[in-house]
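We modelled the chain as a single entity of 160 amino acids. Its sequence is:
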Amino acid sequence: MKEIKLNRIQSKNTWLLLLLSGLLLILSACGMPAEDTVNDELHREESKQNTANDSDVITVEVLVESDLESVADLEIEINARKNPESVYWDTTEVPYKERFVIPKDTFIPLISTHVKARANDSASWVSCSIWYDGELVSSHKSRGSGAKAVCEKKFQLGPG
């Protein structure tokens, strides 16, 4: 009788070992260890909480780049309903990155964002990008002599 119980326990342990081995094999075949999956889920939850906390503002990031160390005639205009902001530089070092925080406490708090930059005389290209809350909404790259990059994002009601 003891021998039969011992065989059943060994049989259950063998099946459990086979099941866990198969699961490990499947996860390793996907190229994703189980601990990475858990870490990714924790990171996603943390990001969702941060987004929920920051939902009362719009974060605008502007990036200007060139193949040289500077650009000319940089213009940035953040047309916000309550607190519009602007930046004007005759010459500035690149990459130039600036962050603006716009509160969402009015109807249509951000009407438009406009960025313009000109490549220096010996530069071959210049580019600009506008990001709203981490999402790229506008970008432009211009090449050649006298290259100008112009990025603009306007709020628009309706289709289009």
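As a brief sanity check on the tokenised model: Residues 32-38 have pLDDT under 50 and may be disordered. The chain has two helices and eight strands.
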